[in-house]
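Worked Example 4.2. Consider the chain below.
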Amino acid sequence: MRTSRGWWALSGIVAGALGLAMSYAAAALLHVRESPVVAVAEGVTALTPGAVVKWAINTFDRDDKKVLVVGILVLLTLVFALIGRVARRQWWLAVAGYVVLAGIAFLAVATKPTPALIDYVPLVVGLLSWVTVLAVLAEVLRRWEVEDGQGPDPAHTRRQFLVAVGGAAALAAVAGLLGRIAGSARRRAEESRRLLRIEGVTAPAVPDGVELGVEGVTPWETPSDAFYLIDTAFIKPAIEPTEWSIRIHGMVDREITLTYRDLVAREITQDWITLGCVSNEIGGDLVGNAWWSGVRLAPILAEAGPHPDADAVLQTSEDGWTCGTPLAPMMDGRNAMLAVAMNGEPLPIEHGFPVRTIVPGLYGYVSATKWVVDMEVTTFDRFTAYWTEKGWGERGPVKIASRIDVPRSGQDVPAGELVVAGVAWFQHSGISAVQVQVDGGAWLDAELANVASADTWVQWRRVVEVDEGEHRIRVRAVDREGTPQTGVVADVLPDGATGWHTIDVTAQA
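Applying the procedure from the previous section yields the following structure tokens:
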């Protein structure tokens, strides 16, 4: 029996790939949002400690989910190879390995909100494909081993094995392609978005005087395709407006369900609002300013009639992500909304199409629910949400922040007059001043651009004198109450970073 163990490992890999491809195709054909691999990946993310999630976001940026999926696929390849080799001697152990893998995926699907019976069909398809294909390849391999050196034509059996492996690989490729073609929900949602016209939504008009014209400073308006993206969805939910609705229930006098048509028939509100991520490091770029259009939440919640002792709203996304939002900021007069458009166009799918939540003054992890479909009025002591389970703060009010965009840290600059400029923000509280410090000296007031509102960031600039040599420059903002931004350095965990953004430059004659 001289066939290489490598052929058995190859059999396990090919059988595993075909099972994954078949489950992916089944998920797409049945319009199940998550294939088993994606369900496992999201399960891994849900169980990952907050510090590790933060490291992944900072290290891989927008590729963090791709890295995790690729890592899972690499690990599965190794496991499939091991199962193939085990099948040579202990077939039952190989089958048990497949059952364990399917069980992990089963648990990942089962822990999603309200899983349906159909969500488990791709798992069954994948498991049956694994066992069936490996059984066929193993049978051919065993005949090869028996005939090798003593059969009339071992080369014939070897060719049969290679043909079987090639056929299984080709079938896996076809199944994967079929799944991709069948996954047309995204394309349908994109087409619906492209054709959608929302009464009352207007194109953004940048207010006069909000930009100082300093080259290199972040533009006041952030284009939709450049706006930062932080979420836990490996496959973005593709929801057509006709299929969307939101349920508002819990500690209310009247439960409310709104369809998309119901929602956009209400008065549309529009505003420039800056959003920032709680995981934004000091000087980081996980912040953006856009023109948001939607329907104010306060009147909708008032219609539902929250009970006097309610203090929170548990929001749920279509993909099962949850966040707990303080009830008061949703009803205190600020422009908290169910947003339907961004920068004058229907929301991009990545940013929550068809509807997402915006609450100025709160970090997104406790407020900005994309693809929102459920709001339960409740109290904070009755639930934990996705990020709070990972150690992040419960209420997430935005902290005052400022950033130096020009010059960049480490840059060589000319000695003499130096323009220092950037942006500052403190949503729903507002910025009254920005100050710059050079080499630990006095704080110098910067020139502010027009402050459009308390909910938007503001550009600033200051000309300072620098002699030849190395210099350290800091910035701090001052809120509308006259309180300067603290210089105490704190990590983003548990509720946002603090400290002064500091850069080092070298001035040359």
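The two ends are 79 Å apart (CA to CA). The mean pLDDT is 88. Compare this with Example 4.1 before moving on.
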